[in-house]
Design a protein that fits this description.
The complex is a heterodimer of chains A (554) and B (149). Chain A has a domain of 382 residues: Methylmalonyl-CoA mutase (TIM Barrel), CATH 3.20.20. In chain A, strands 3-11-10-9-8 form a five-stranded parallel β-sheet. Chain A is globular, with a radius of gyration of 24 Å. The mean pLDDT of chain A is 94. Chain A is an alpha/beta fold. Chain A is built from 22 helices and eleven strands. By secondary structure, chain B is an alpha/beta fold. Chain B has a single domain, classed as 3-Layer(aba) Sandwich (Rossmann fold), CATH 3.40.50. Chain B has a five-stranded parallel β-sheet, with helices on both faces. In chain B, helix 3 crosses helix 4. Classes of the chains: A alpha/beta (554), B alpha/beta (149). At the A-B interface, helix 5 and helix 18 of A face helix 2 of B.
Chain lengths: 554, 149
């Protein structure tokens, strides 16, 4: 069809449309991109096919990072698991393995995120959000009878990566060579913690930067199957960044880490293939799919243009995604099953490598077992019933989606340019620029919810007169007797270790942190092997490298 | 002189917006702080992870009417201890509200412990501002009858 015919048809349709809908209000998505009522070849035309799309596994990577995508291998279903004690965790994980799971994930208790051992925390909080895991002894209990050389292990393990050190120490104790281990240090992105999720922030910015480089370099040499960095856009989006801002800020963070590695003397093709990403999937369906497609293109370009990557693995934008907790409601919680499913579809059509679907009760408490099982079933339904894996990048070529992907790409590039102009991500978060961007967008979103412009079913639209409380079952708090026994075990672990060896290795850790050229992470691992606790290690590093007090912009 | 000028019109609620315990998610507390500030209240805002003793000290030093605690990851379980600590120093007139993720059974537990109100996710802006304003009024009125030592 010639453009002239399209132009004429469009003109006629526009007249009809505005006659029928004279009060049509302009619409925008969360990234503030104006959304038109229709898209045509005038917006995106398949003449641009090779330039914009190409083929999966090839530049410009819009359609996916592997030639076969979900036809060859579906995403990893990586559900987060964190029960109160190592023993309870071990029981649940063995159950999951018996049911076919081949990947582990481990969520520690908030006390661990704060770098506190169990003897320093009000027991009422212990184990309410994850595993109380402080020592290599705890890790051995978590992983008892589990073939760790055959499992991909995901650790929620912020700097200085004490859980990974415990895994390495445990592997050494049971004679599993480190080069047989595979997995990912999730929550390894200190920049995202500093700006958007203080829960994970442990050391001051500069110290974090140094320890992260030490970790990347240590693992490259000693545990090459491990992904040392997962750059997290999820925190920034959950904290309020728009999807385009979250993607731009995440890529700017990855650029920062890449530049820091180069400055350490590492070659781009030696570290880029092990960079992974982690994103939020909001309920803004098309926008999220476009975000992932655009992100893949921008990252591929960054690896070539900024880092001169030659290895095709360096340009693959491997990402994990999680459905958005912020979009879930406490009112009518069963409605969240529908929300999670829609977000899950966006992750799949966006070409994810790994996904966590939230429990429907996440606005109520940590997920109950019932809710956890429904979220796993949701993934299975999407994978095996809905036909979503039959066609690679099934929405590719849609006039709307391609236009939106290009527009999201422009917005993402604009954010990256803004951060470049501020001297890169490290300086941009040190100065508070990034916190300002996120805070403003969070406020703008909240205003749209308050005004009813952004509708949330059950909250500001279709509000029920009464909400059935029987749908609000929650996970019971940990049994205080079990927790008391765990604290007792922890204390006897400390009593029965070689104190002199612990002190020696902690002193070596402090010395490494003071020095300019010793690898701090190597000493974290050694201290853990010598039975130092995570609290002791983090305290020593805080003494040398400073406490992580985040910048607060109210 | 300043006291004499404090008429009903000039009454500005003083609200401490904070987080105790272990969690650091602060999107909620920041939005609440901005809402209350824009509604004309005096907001004292802190970083997360405050100790109960620090909160009590701030309440005493800053003449706080209402404490707004944000809890998204089980830190509300510490609130009864805060209530006890406030009573111990004679500040039981200060009203405490908790916002965030609080299971139904825990809400009852908190109300029993003396918390004035629990705001769940999805609470509307005007409801939050009105409720906190009213509680501040109550706190200010009852504080005048208390003798400080």
């Amino acid at each position: 069809m010639s453009n002239k015919q399209i132009d004429e048809g469009l003109k006629q349709w526009e007249e009809l449309y505005s006659k029928s809908l004279p009060n049509d209000k302009p619409r925008t998505n969360r990234s503030n991109i104006k959304i038109k009522p229709i898209y045509t070849p005038n917006d995106w035309d398949s003449d641009r096919y090779m330039e914009d799309l190409g083929f999966p596994g090839e530049e410009p990577m819009a359609r996916g990072i592997y030639p076969t995508m979900h036809r060859g291998q579906t995403w990893s279903q990586r559900q987060l698991v964190g029960l109160a004690t190592p023993e309870l965790y071990n029981t649940r994980v063995k159950q999951m393995i018996a049911n076919g799971a081949n990947a582990l994930s481990m969520i520690p208790c908030n006390s661990v995120y704060r770098g506190l051992d169990v003897d320093l925390v009000d027991p009422v909080l212990l184990g309410t959000c994850g595993i109380t895991i402080n020592t290599v002894g705890d890790m051995a209990k978590c992983l008892k009878d589990i073939p760790i050389d055959k499992m991909s292990i995901g650790l929620n393990d912020p700097i200085p990566f004490t859980m990974l050190a415990q895994v390495l120490a445990h592997a050494k104790n049971i004679n599993v060579p480190w080069n047989k281990l595979t997995g990912t240090s999730n929550q390894s992105d200190y920049i995202s913690h500093y700006v958007a999720n203080h829960m994970f922030f442990r050391l001051a910015l500069k110290g974090s930067r140094r320890v992260q480089m030490d970790e990347i370099s240590f693992l490259r040499d000693n545990c090459p199957g491990w992904n040392p960095v997962s750059v997290v856009g999820q925190h920034m989006q959950q904290a309020g960044a728009t999807p385009a801002e979250a993607m731009g800020l995440t890529l700017s963070t990855a650029i920062q880490y890449g530049n820091d590695c180069v400055e350490r003397g590492m070659l781009p093709d030696s570290f880029l293939p092990r960079f992974t990403f982690f994103f939020d999937i909001s309920i803004s369906y098309f926008e999220e799919i476009a975000k992932f497609r655009a992100g893949r293109r921008v990252w591929a370009r960054i690896t070539k243009e900024r880092f001169g990557a030659k290895d095709p693995r360096s340009s693959r934008f491997k990402f994990h995604c999680q459905t958005s907790g912020v979009d879930l409601t406490r009112v009518q919680p069963l409605n969240n099953i529908a929300r999670v499913a829609i977000q899950g579809i966006a992750g799949i059509l966006g070409g994810c490598q790994s996904m966590h679907t939230d429990g429907y009760d996440e606005a109520l408490s940590c997920p109950t077992e019932e809710a956890a099982l429904i979220s796993v079933a949701t993934q299975n339904i999407l994978k095996d019933e809905a036909g979503l894996t039959d066609v690679i990048d099934a929405l590719g070529g849609s006039y709307y989606l391609e236009t939106l992907t290009n527009q999201m790409e422009e917005e993402i590039e604009a954010t990256i340019s803004r951060i470049d102009a501020a001297g890169g991500m490290f300086l941009a978060v040190e100065s508070g620029l990034v916190q300002g961007i996120i805070g403003e967008s969070a406020m703008a979103h909240q205003e749209k919810v308050d005004s009813g412009e952004h509708k949330i079913v059950g909250v500001n639209a279709y509000v029920p007169d009464e909400d059935d409380a029987s749908n609000r079952k929650v996970q019971p708090w940990p049994d205080q007797n079990i927790m008391a026994k765990h604290i007792e075990d922890f204390c006897s672990f400390k009593e029965n270790r070689d104190d002199a060896a612990v002190q020696r290795s902690l002193d070596k850790l402090s010395e490494a942190a003071k020095s300019d050229n010793q690898n701090v992470y190597e000493q974290v691992v050694q201290a853990t092997i010598n039975n130092a606790t995570q609290g002791e290690i983090i305290t020593r590093l805080r003494d040398e490298l400073g406490f992580g007090n985040p910048l607060i912009n109210a | 002189m300043i006291e004499e000028k404090t008429t009903k019109e000039a009454f500005k609620p003083r609200v401490l917006v904070t987080k105790i315990g272990l969690d650091g998610h602060d999107r909620g507390s920041r939005i609440i702080a901005a809402w209350l500030r824009d509604a004309g209240m005096e907001v004292i805002y802190t970083a997360p992870w405050q100790e109960i003793s620090t909160v009590v000290k701030l309440v005493q030093e800053e003449d706080v009417d209402v404490i707004g605690l944000s809890s998204l990851a089980t830190d509300h379980l510490l609130v009864p201890k805060l209530m006890t600590a406030l009573s111990e120093v004679g500040y039981q007139h200060v009203k405490v509200v908790v916002g965030g993720i609080v299971p139904d059974a825990d809400e009852l537990m908190l109300l029993d412990a003396g918390v004035s109100k629990v705001f769940h996710t999805g609470s509307a802006k005007n409801d939050v501002i009105e409720a906190i304003g009213a509680l501040a009024n109550k706190a200010r009125n009852s504080s005048s009858s208390i003798t400080f030592n």
